[in-house]
Write a structure and sequence with these properties.
A hairpin with a 2-residue loop joins strand 4 (about 160-165) and strand 5 (about 170). Helix content is about 45%, strand content about 10%. The strands form two sheets. The protein has a seven-stranded mixed sheet. A three-stranded antiparallel sheet has the order 3-5-4. The two termini are about 40 Å apart. By secondary structure, the chain is an alpha/beta fold. About 40% of the residues are buried.
Length: about 425
């Protein structure tokens, strides 16, 4: 039987909790029930229905606010270039940028820095940044950061736009004078104060993958209406295909994950109700149930299969169709890293999330020299299955290779326990 509290969260927020990882979701539900002194899931759902603060607290527990300044740097370079062009064509109108699911504010402040460095003065632009979490918005407004949030900021950029605040850095006066507004908003019921076509760019990155199909379609339709003609939509690398299906087209520069608004109607505002999502591979099983094999997808359901589509002349079966993870790794082993990465990114957008998928993504990213993204992929694998052996081993190797021995030993095991000897960089596949 489905947990009624989880169902209520999905109804109120549009989140697809299976995409967050069912082990994580179940743990957070248990955690809040313990906080509230509730044992019955139905009583928990009733409490959430009438207690907005409790619902906000649960969303806080579920949503991971992992972000940093200038994530995907090429996207901010493209924004700066387009902003200069927009100002030349429309000198009387400020450039307006919207950041959806802005988390703790790093993206909103990065947008402001990019526009200032592109030559725009504070009166020349407006940034509006929204998130469902009141706590995250409070941190964004405070503008005080440290550690991993600043990891991609060059020292000269840090000194120019921030001022020291103890062991941390606070957004400085040169940015505080810009029109950057942070506010709490539920994207599932998003109502924008600005009229249609008011925004030149919308950042909506790593949001669509966590939404139910109907909620994703509604949000893309609202973004399409909010953007000016040929305005830019910035998404995560696994979200390009869903955005293309909603009347957005490709932008010219690689690594920006930016698409242009195209004329014409966006995707429908509501999709047919999706079938219940399957539990991620490696998730909790009923007591006594046999262990599932570690494959990219669960086995097909028993029963008659639907008829195959007509085959055109020269048709041949796609060897990667049934298992995109295995197909991607086969391509990587053959030296086609770009093809392997493309298949894995497509699988992220179209298949249920699984630890095997994110482990494969980590391996291909590492082999492609994109080391900064490897740890994030492994972390996603462990959200789905905290005991996933391959992800734990790979993550231990990553953190110890960069010299973070303390972090490596905080994992359930370190490489010295797994390998029995000093670290040797592994072959990725």
């Amino acid at each position: 039987m489905r947990d009624p509290a989880a169902a209520l969260v999905e109804e109120r927020t549009g989140l697809d909790l299976a995409a967050l990882g069912l082990p994580l979701v179940r743990a957070r539900l248990r955690e809040q029930r313990a906080e509230l002194g509730l044992a019955d899931p139905a009583a928990h759902a009733r409490r959430l229905a009438g207690d907005a603060a409790a619902l906000e607290r649960l969303v806080e527990l579920l949503v991971v606010h992992e972000t940093w300044f200038f994530r995907y740097p090429a996207s901010f370079r493209l924004l700066g270039e387009r902003a200069r062009a927009w100002r030349r064509r429309r000198p009387a109108r400020p450039v307006r940028v919207l950041s959806l699911a802005c988390s703790t504010g790093e993206e909103g402040w990065s947008i402001a820095i990019a526009l200032r460095e592109a030559g725009l003065a504070p009166p020349d632009f407006e940034v509006e940044a929204l998130d469902v979490s009141p706590a995250a918005i409070a941190r964004a407004k405070a503008g005080c950061y440290g550690g991993r949030a600043l990891r991609d900021l060059a020292p000269e950029r840090l000194a120019r736009w921030f001022e020291p605040d103890g062991s941390r850095w606070r957004v400085g006066p040169a940015l505080r004078t810009a029109r950057v507004r942070f506010a709490v908003a539920n994207l599932h019921r998003l109502v924008l104060a600005a009229p249609p076509g008011a925004y030149d760019a919308v950042f909506c990155r790593n949001v669509l993958i966590y939404l139910q199909p109907a909620a994703r379609a509604r949000l893309l339709a609202r973004v399409h209406a909010a953007l000016a003609g040929h305005g830019l939509l910035f998404v995560g690398h696994a979200e390009v295909e869903p955005a293309r299906a909603a009347a957005f087209g490709g932008a010219p520069e690689p690594e920006t994950f930016a698409l242009e608004r195209r004329p014409g109607p966006p995707a429908p505002a509501a999709d047919p109700a999706p079938a219940p999502a399957a539990a991620p591979v490696g998730g909790p099983r009923p007591p006594g149930a046999p262990a599932e094999p570690r494959t990219a997808h669960p086995p097909p359901a028993a029963g008659p299969h639907p008829p195959e589509p007509p085959r055109r002349a020269g048709w041949a079966p796609d060897p990667d169709a049934e298992d995109p993870v295995a197909g991607a790794l086969r391509r990587a082993n053959a030296g086609d890293l770009a093809g392997a990465l493309a298949r894995l990114e497509h699988a992220r957008a179209t298949c249920p999330p699984s630890p095997a998928l994110f482990c494969a993504l980590a391996a291909v990213l590492g082999a492609s020299g994109r080391d900064a993204e490897v740890e994030g992929a492994l972390t996603r694998a462990l959200y789905l299955d905290p005991d996933h052996y391959e992800a734990l081993v790979h993550l231990a190797l990553v953190v110890e290779a960069r010299g973070d021995l303390a972090h490596g030993r905080r994992l359930p095991f370190g490489t010295h326990e797994v390998l029995g000897y000093a670290y040797v960089p592994p072959t990725p596949f």
